[in-house]
Specification:
There is one protein chain. The chain has 432 residues and is of the alpha/beta class. It folds into 2 domains: 2-226 and 410-431, 3-Layer(aba) Sandwich (Rossmann fold), CATH 3.40.50; 243-407, Glycogen Phosphorylase B (Rossmann fold, 3-Layer(aba) Sandwich), CATH 3.40.50. Helices cover 46% and strands 13% of the residues. The chain has 18 helices and 12 strands. Strands 2-1-3-4-5-6 form a 6-stranded parallel beta sheet, sandwiched between helices. Helix 15 links the parallel strand 11 (350-353) and strand 12 (368-371).
Length: 432
């Protein structure tokens, strides 16, 4: 199949969606499919090698901003747009500007959802023209529903079906200030009719988005997120010192402060307990982390916490093998939770909060336990149950690892995705 995969870049940032997309890209190519990856907004710098991408960044973050702000930039010459889309310039801007924070981006989000009726219509025309020159396309795969405004024009110009992944759009849209929150959800529901198939990363999220998009459940398939399992190996034995791991964005809403509270409780039973916190860290997170460090220092725990932001793949795998247990006690339900299968792939059991997709993933893998959300005492009890029995915890992690290798591999995800895209492509050809 010839597939166009549209992937928004998050810059130098640990992003579950970006990691999922790049794993899928490589797996589809390894299975013989011709996949053209189209980066949007920022260069993709985490996960793939540079040769995985062809061509330039589309909807470059600077051009998107300028076209949103001033109408003059709706008619600027292509040479100027191309200069502003240079990866080096975009990478510099990504480090300085709040591009991953929905607050302040309500107008731009709504404009992007409006597609040909939004302020970035020039960018959409450029993308459609570029892809139209690529020859036959069997299917277009959008990374998330925030790109739904692209679907109608691409479907028409390429005469190919458009499928759309679903993961954590609610986390972005629900943080928008009003009236943009309401307007964006309404616009997304309208644009959803341009999409031939949705693919959610969990049954939990499929059901949630069916309700939010006013779509029938039959329109949303479920294909779990997966791993390229190369390099994910189990540690020979759990560490002698109890070590809790955290792998997600280093911020408040992912429950990092709650985990510190649980650690303070655990210290009475496990005085040497340690926390290793890894994941994404951007400028917006730094005030919260400074506050958290002051709290740790006040309670005499600063020396027992290690900060490991933005680890590359091999370093992340080494980090995982050093842990006794993985825990990301997110304050709000998550569409998937990649850290669960990453930890289990290295034989590390997981303590997860009982909301979102966590129960679904742990139910499938059997690699951990669930605790009540937003409750530091319950979290401490769950972590203590795992840390208190090293042998049982080790066996729990190994059992989960086996299931991840069978059901959450990149090859399995790619085969399932290709079959779905092939089916909708044939359906569109039949009705053409």
């Amino acid at each position: 199949m010839r597939i166009v995969q549209v992937i928004p870049g998050a810059g130098d940032f640990y992003c579950e969606n970006c990691l999922r997309d790049t794993v899928l890209l490589r797996a589809l190519r390894e299975q013989g499919h011709d996949v053209l990856a189209v980066p949007l907004y920022l260069p993709i710098v985490r996960g793939p090698a540079e040769e995985d991408y062809r061509g330039a960044v589309f909807f470059g973050a600077i051009n998107v901003y300028l076209q949103q702000k001033w109408r003059l930039f709706h008619w600027t010459p292509r040479w100027l747009d191309r200069l502003l889309d240079e990866p080096a310039i975009l990478g510099l801007v990504a480090k300085q500007v709040r591009l991953t924070n929905p607050v302040g981006l309500g107008k731009t989000t709504l404009s992007m959802l409006r597609g040909p009726d939004g302020r970035q219509a020039k960018e959409l025309d450029r993308l459609a023209e570029y892809l139209s020159g690529m020859g036959r396309i069997d299917a277009v795969l959008l990374s998330d529903a925030l790109l739904a405004g692209l679907a109608g024009p691409l479907r028409q110009s390429l005469r190919a079906p458009v499928a759309c992944m679903l993961q954590d759009e609610d986390e972005w849209l629900d943080y928008l200030p009003e009236p943009y929150r309401r307007q964006c959800w309404e616009e997304l529901a309208r644009r959803a009719t341009d999409i031939d198939a949705f693919i959610a990363v969990s049954r939990y999220y499929a059901d949630l988005m069916a309700e939010r998009l006013k779509a029938s459940a039959g329109r949303i398939a479920v294909i779990h997120s997966a791993l390229d399992l190369r390099g994910y190996e189990e540690a020979q034995s759990p560490p002698a010192t109890p070590i809790i791991g955290f792998l997600s964005r280093l911020c408040r809403h992912k429950g990092l402060e709650l985990l510190v509270e649980a650690m303070e409780i655990l210290r009475g039973r496990f005085p040497n307990v340690r926390l290793r916190a890894a994941g994404g860290c951007i400028a917006d997170d730094k005030p919260f982390l400074r506050q958290l460090r002051r709290r740790l220092k006040k309670h005499g725990l600063a020396a027992q916490v290690e900060w490991l932001p933005n680890l590359e793949r091999s370093a992340r795998q080494e980090f995982l093998r050093s842990l006794s247990v993985m825990c990301v006690p997110s304050l709000r339900p998550e569409a998937f939770g990649r850290y669960i299968i990453e930890a289990l792939a290295c034989g590390v059991p997981v303590a997860a909060v009982d909301h979102g997709a966590a129960g679904e993933i742990l139910g499938a893998t059997g690699g951990g336990l669930l605790v009540a959300p937003n409750d530091p005492a319950a979290l401490a009890a769950g972590l203590g149950a795992i840390l208190g029995d090293r042998l049982a915890a080790h066996e729990l992690g190994l059992a989960g690892s086996q299931v991840v290798r069978e059901r959450f591999s990149d090859a399995h995800m790619a085969r399932t995705m290709a079959a779905l895209l092939g089916a909708i492509s044939e359906r569109v050809k039949t009705h053409a």
